Amino acid sequence: MKRILLLGAALAFAAGADDLRVYSDAERPRASIYEFLNGVAQKQLAERRAAVSRLRTPDEVRARAARTRETFLRMIGGLPATRTPLNLQRTGSLDRGDYRVEMVLFESLPGFYVTGNLYIPSGQGPFPAVLHPTGHSATAKTRGLYQSLSIGLAKSGFVVLTYDPLGQGERRIFWDQHLQDSKVGGTTVEHQMVGVQSLLAGESMARLMVWDGIRGIDLLSSLPYVDARRIGVTGCSGGGTLTTYLAVADERVQVAAPSCYITSWEDQLPGTGPQDAEQQFPDQLLEGIDHGDLVQVFAPKPYLICSTTEDFFPLSGAKKTYEEAKRVWGLFGGDSGEKIAWFYGPGGHGMRADTRSAIYAWMNRWLRDRPGEAPEPKFDVEYEENLHVTASGQVTVSFGGETASTLNMSRYRQIQPEGGDLKAHVLRLTRYQASSAPLAITERGTAGGAGYRVQKLLYDAEPGRKVPALLYLPANDQRRTVLYAGESGKDGDDPKRLAELGYTVLAIDLAGMGETLAPRTSYSVQWFGQDKPTWLALMVGRTLTGIRMADFVRGLDVLAARGLLHGGKAQGVAHGSGPATALLHAALLDERFGEIRLEEALVSYRAVATTPVHRQIFDSVLPNVLRAYDLPDLARALAPRKVTLVNTATPLGATLAMPLVRASYPDAHIDVRRRREAEPIL
Fold first, then answer.
1. What is the distance between the alpha carbons of residues 543 and 623, in angstroms, rounded to a whole number?
2. What are the tens digits of pLDDT across the range 322-348?
3. Is the dihedral of CA 414, 417, 419, 425 positive or negative?
4. What are 54-104's pLDDT values in tens digits?
5. Other residues' Cβ atoms within 10 Å of the Cβ of residue 118
6. Given 3-state DSSP classes, what are the helix, strand and coil percentages for the chain, each rounded to the nearest 5?
7. Which residues neighbour 130 within 8 Å (Cβ) at sequence distance 6 or greater?
């Protein structure tokens, strides 16, 4: 498999295929699928902002907050139904005079261990308490930056529970004892790996992360020296995300102070775009959920937004969200306007001492009734290993138990498709939108090859979105037509070889490929490919699979308009997981596809759901698809049309043994084959 070379193939296309480009240099920046989706998102965000501006009374705010809370919990997949025993263990302690630190271990679910540090002030309680989830860091709770906030709060008179979020600190999900590191890389990659898998069951990585925090509040509330009526939550970066979510999900939180997270998607999307797997959800923009809505759920309780001027969470978005929230808080009258505030200071992403001081003051004012400034006290942070809960530094090594990955796989094995109308399921889950607009085809010149000529075309897939295509017309036309799409784009070797064999070929750049490739990458491109447009499609209520289905169907319309559907049919050929998944779905809806050939296709969704690690399949994933159907079900439903599977792939992109493919696709009309690199495609 060569999926990992997708970006390199795109760069090679840009460097060496100018004669087959359809878009001009001036058009190219606007041609990417991300730009189209951002346009959709901005319209949805404008509608959402207008709706918030119409709020006039506390009751209207409460009603919108209730809808937001219900929507948020549904989007993350709900929460576990039962609070099982925490089984708190203490594995060590440090006495630092005016506070002490206890190393604690608890189970948020049976066998699902959470490693934490409990900071306890000296003196008589009961004390107010603060839950401190940390940001995306390999050392998490023991990182000096995060230790500083916990120590400063403890020295200010708060009991603090800080803990390792999933995939961080002592809770790495894919820890390899030989590597002494994760098998997949950084903490954000671990989140994304589990998060993409979670989508298949209609869940988010945030589900377990929020539950860990709720159980952390349970732990604090159970301590005899904690006043359970006075609990706050604060954290930076990913910890700011979890602070925001916990303020939505747990009404016991009385004061919130997220740092370096709150902005607005209106400003975030044109910049760094979607982030970690737990930081955005399918349909959230379609349903009108922006950062501001998550903030306003908390009204009129005390809420402090903390920002930095050079953060990749744009300050301009934080300003908009704060100004909107200030108006909402003001609707409650009295001193409510004082309970929403925004602190920002210079610098990049992270929590500086001035931000920490603002948080101490905010917590002091609202949880200890001590208004005024709160300069950071002097202290020394600990060596990281002194704060470890486990002897090995990893909970799975020292205690075993579950990880987010093992919990997913064990639960997802039990999910079975519910049956029913397969086409209805496909339309619902892919969000396929058939274009009702007249077909528009623009010719952009011609090129030549050995035994064929090429017409460069643009056609409308839907209003505002076009598909670049190459129509290969062979000299020895044999009245056989192929509609082709591959991960490397429309100008690869396969369409040329088919044209040389006498096939008429319409080769297209599916959304997010070739000339529509999003001109932005992320830390995880080698694992998740075009993850930002994939996430953005989900956020606006679309899927890349559904969008690409429209590309295929309109491609058939182009062939029909040119009189090239011989016998009313075309053979569909797709190379790679994303194109193959889209073609398989499109063929179910449009019988103008005759035979279809899927090369290097993903074997099944269930394989992803029950395999720990996957690569370059994110754009094929459909939320909640496990409860409706799997890819073999689609192939089976195409009978009596022939389906040929070539070099079918595992979730990691390796070629799956043919007996295992046949076991997944046992139907007689499905042919399983191998193709060596030098062999012809057909």
1. 9
2. 999 999 999 999 999 999 999 999 999
3. positive
4. 999 999 999 999 999 999 999 999 999 999 999 999 999 999 999 999 999
5. 24
6. 40, 20, 40
7. 153, 158, 159, 160, 161, 231, 232, 233, 234, 363, 367
